[in-house]
Amino acid sequence: MELSGEYVGCDGEPQRLRVSCEASGDADPLQSLSAGVVRMKELVAEFFGTLVEQDAQGLAEDPDDALDGDDEDDAEDENNSGRTNSDGPSAKRPKPAS
Amino acid sequence: MQDPVEGLDGRAGLAEGEDSQLRPQAPDAQASSQNSATEGDHGNVPRSCPQDSGRPAAPGTLATPGSQAAPGSPSPGNTVGSGAAAEEAAVIPHSEQATLVPGRNGDTASTRNRHLEFSVTVPFRTAMEAGMARRSLVANARPQQVMVQQEFTANDSILAVRWTTDDPVLFRISINTFLDQLSLVMRNIQRLEFVAVVKRGRGRSRES
């Protein structure tokens, strides 16, 4: 008896997880299968844990984030240009006094 | 005496030459025949010889345009052919691009639209056990169908379960839940067998 799992990702490549559930001697086959299920849970947790981490890293390295950063820089430039415009009137005020 | 004879021979030779040259072209032949008649009338005058030599040049000049026309006609054809070839050359890359771009886009689209899949096969001892497990697990899985698609199949004594989703996190949650429930189902099956054995034992003791 073998408890098997297969994962197919975006690339279409299958990855298999296998757990042997051979009953030893007079042991109950269902008992062996239950032990196999426990082992499969461990494998699944390990496998998908790695997969989730890779997915998170992929999102972190997304080029769109860089573009978002550029947008922020552009916003700051606009703010600076606004400040420059606000300095204009203050420079003109001394002229009426003379 | 011989001189007049030689002169006649020369004229005859010229006439033959003109005829041979003009035979391929009927209009030129007629013109040359008229000229030859005139030449016959003025044959006594030696000055007419240079003029005669000049006149045959005209057919040559006429022939030249014909010869030019012959190579001229293929050249436009060649141009048309080269144009067609150019068009074909231009079209082929375009068609190739057309065939490649959809392929690339198709690959990209298929890659983007491809769902994640996970399947588990559980080998029970009997078809009855597999059926019992399937019925129990299907009922428990219904609330999760909204987020993750699950498919349960019992083939003889083999239970096969397949998940389809886009999010690996949901995968882990759903599969772990399934495995926990599977363990519970197996325990229940064992207990049912135990109860059955006990009942059989009691029946035998009563009979005895």
UniProtKB/TrEMBL annotation, chain B:
The domain of life for this entry's organism is Eukaryota
Identify the keywords attached in UniProt to this record, alphabetized.
Cytoplasm, Nucleus, tRNA processing
User: Would the keyword tRNA processing be found if you checked this record's keyword annotation?
Assistant: yes
In terms of InterPro entries, this protein maps to: CTAG/Pcc1
Q: Where in the cell is it found?
A: Cytoplasm; Nucleus
Q: Where is the composition biased (Low complexity)?
A: 63-77
Q: Where is this region: Disordered?
A: 1-114
Q: Which GO terms describe its cellular component?
A: cytoplasm; EKC/KEOPS complex; nucleus
The protein's matches in PANTHER family, at most eight in alphabetical order, are given as: CTAG2 LIKE 2 (PTHR31283:SF16), EKC/KEOPS COMPLEX SUBUNIT PCC1 FAMILY MEMBER (PTHR31283)
Q: Report the function annotation for this chain.
A: Component of the EKC/KEOPS complex that is required for the formation of a threonylcarbamoyl group on adenosine at position 37 (t(6)A37) in tRNAs that read codons beginning with adenine. The complex is probably involved in the transfer of the threonylcarbamoyl moiety of threonylcarbamoyl-AMP (TC-AMP) to the N6 group of A37. LAGE3 functions as a dimerization module for the complex.
What family does the database annotate?
Belongs to the CTAG/PCC1 family.
Name under which the protein is recorded? L antigen family member 3
* Name of the encoding gene: Ctag2l2
